[in-house]
Write a structure and sequence with these properties.
By secondary structure, the protein is α/β, with parallel strands linked by helices. It has one domain: Nitrilase/N-carbamoyl-D-aminoacid amidohydrolase. 26% of the residues lie in helices and 22% in strands. It contains 8 helices and 12 strands. The strands form 2 sheets. Strands 5-4-3-2-1-12 form a 6-stranded mixed sheet. Strands 6-7-8-9-10-11 form a 6-stranded mixed sheet, covered by helices on one side. Helix 1 packs parallel to helix 3. The radius of gyration is 21 Å and the shape is globular. The termini are far apart.
Length: 340
């Protein structure tokens, strides 16, 4: 048995801030560049389309209404033309893409989800996941997700799963993917996460926290792991500072998160990016997993299914379920069209 050797591209890039059409075009350009460099899997960061909303970390909700309206306006439907444009490129190039985006609801103009899709090489959506629980201040932006997207995609380049941001701290969500034989794990992240003002006690070190979480998932799952973070560019920084001058020093001092890769031992490998925009590349030889699974296999012999049982409800959440028999539906007449 020979497992795939897969070249992965992690896009450490900034969206065109709050501009969906331009961001989708930028994504397509970078997918084509990654493909030209031999990548078979291309990863984009958390809510790349149209942006991660950094203002929620610093501004009071009472001051954010105009930004929330703009975010809703620029958010997209999972079955809309923007995602279809990415699907078409995947089909054309025969490439797999994981794309983070702000998803809007067809039944509520004010409901958003932090979501991703994994699109297969034939252009089909193989996974559609909504972040289960928004983190900290994110609860003021995004609704709770569901378990529908907690699935691992079986592709010719490996078995691929993904979690968004803080979900990578949740042992149950992580094991839901481990238990499906995940071989490549993608984690999607914001550019920074501010919990303290400059000069106060030590801020939350997202970069270090991500190294711990990614290394943990890689080691426990015996999987290769991608950390794909947004890049906070000068245009986004100036937009946020102009909108909120009182917090300009926070935006100026924000520490950029890294994009990087880990092997199944938990060691960092391949290229990494932090302070500049670009694509980081790494080649995963999935055959390395076999020997490590011999040591500990949490999806196999190194598990006690008679003691531990995990049930995951993957039913998509809907606002309301209607119980009706179409055979009993009332028929209403309508007026005939008058002929001219």
């Amino acid at each position: 048995m020979s497992l795939p050797i897969t070249k992965v591209a992690a896009c450490h890039i900034a969206p065109v801030f709050l501009n969906t059409n331009a961001t989708i075009q930028k994504a397509i350009e970078w997918i084509r560049e990654a493909h030209s460099n031999g990548a078979q899997l291309v990863c984009f960061p958390e809510t790349f389309v149209p942006c991660y909303p950094p203002w929620t970390q610093l501004k009071a909700p009472v001051d954010n209404h105009h930004l929330f309206r703009k975010l809703c306006e620029q958010s997209i439907y999972v079955d809309g033309p923007e995602i279809m444009a990415i699907q078409s490129v995947c089909s054309e190039l025969g490439i797999v893409v994981c794309l983070g985006f702000n998803e809007k609801s067809r039944v509520s103009v004010g409901c958003l989800w932090n979501a991703y899709v994994i699109i297969g090489e034939d252009g089909s959506i193989m996974a559609h996941h909504r972040k289960i629980m928004p983190t900290y201040c994110e609860k003021l932006v995004w609704s709770h997700g569901d378990g529908n997207g907690l699935n691992v995609c079986d592709t010719k380049i490996g078995k691929i799963g993904a979690l968004i941001c803080g979900e990578n701290t949740n042992p149950l969500a992580k094991y839901a993917l481990i238990g499906q034989g995940e071989q490549i794990h993608i984690s999607l992240w914001p550019a920074f996460f501010t919990t303290r003002r400059p000069g106060q006690t030590v801020n939350y070190d997202l970069d270090n926290a991500n190294r711990i979480r990614a290394g943990c998932q890689a080691f426990e799952a015996k999987s290769f792991t991608v950390v794909c973070a947004n890049f906070f560019d000068e245009a986004a920084r100036e937009f946020c500072k102009n909108d909120d001058p009182a917090n300009a020093d926070c935006y100026d001092s924000a520490s950029q998160c890294s994009t990087m890769f880990f092997d199944p031992t938990g060691a960092q490998i391949g290229e990494s990016l932090k302070e500049k925009e670009g694509i980081a590349y790494c080649t995963f030889d999935l055959n390395q997993i076999v020997e490590l699974k011999q040591f500990q296999d949490l999806a196999g012999y190194y598990q006690r299914y008679d003691i531990f049982k995990l049930s995951v409800d993957r039913t998509p959440a809907t606002p309301v379920t209607f119980l009706e028999d179409p055979a009993t539906a009332l028929k209403y007449p309508k007026p005939e069209k008058k002929s001219n």
